[in-house]
Give the backbone structure.
Amino acid sequence: WRIIILFHSAIAFCIPPYLLYYSINPFSSGILQRNKIMMRQALNNILIRRQQTARRLLSVGGVSLGQKSANSASRNVALLTGLAVAATATASYKHHQHDSILCQAIQSVNNLMPTKEPKTGILFPHFCTGLTYVGCGVRVKYGFVKVYAVGTYVDPIAVAAVKKQSDAEIEKALLDPMYPRTIRIVMNRSLSIDKYMAAIVEAIEPRMGGVDLDKLKEFKDMNPPGDLIEGSEMTMTIRGDTMLYRNCAGSVGAIHSEVFCKALCDTYYGKDPVSPSHKEDVIKGIKKLP
């Protein structure tokens, strides 16, 4: 096959026959090295001529392929050049496809990077308790004190039916504890556990309608004594009538009450949420889910 390739190359590009002979003659070891160098130079010249021909063909739109006056050698050069251009285009297309896949992979990796809450700089990972991040915000007290950052994680499959609907429909789904979600809270400043719990109970209790108020004490008792420091983290995972709570020490407890879970959902996603920026970002995030 090597002889055939060299033969056709010699015909197409007029390689001197003696170079062809000495390049394939196993008995010409005395001058083989010199002829290898000459052969390499000849092939380099062929490559240069092919590139020049390709530029000429491209400059005239490739009409040389159809000219009857072109001689046989020119037709061979044009044909081989056309094949080379086609191969280059195919390789370029494959390279473009590779770049596209690579860009998609990079974008996927970027999508998994933590999200920074803009006002506190607190990071929220892409996943928490097996659910997917959709948005975050900040809890502000007295109009300027940034108490904690709060983020929401949802099940993309569970919200698939509502993510293309209006804001009102998404809000309605967020108020329904049957849609699983995790509320992740990260303290932006030190605060006593009593003040922290008092603020949450103050927001939840009016929304419970006087029912299952004993669950509020259960909720308080789930927290260890002491103060919360900057960076302390708590999570509340709501699934139906159950709220799983992981306190700042990592201990996990559960509260079973549909009333309590609905009140907690209303606290963060209702008409008067404790963090409007959080609610707004969560609705936007759900709409962006793939």
The chain is about 50% helix and 20% strand.
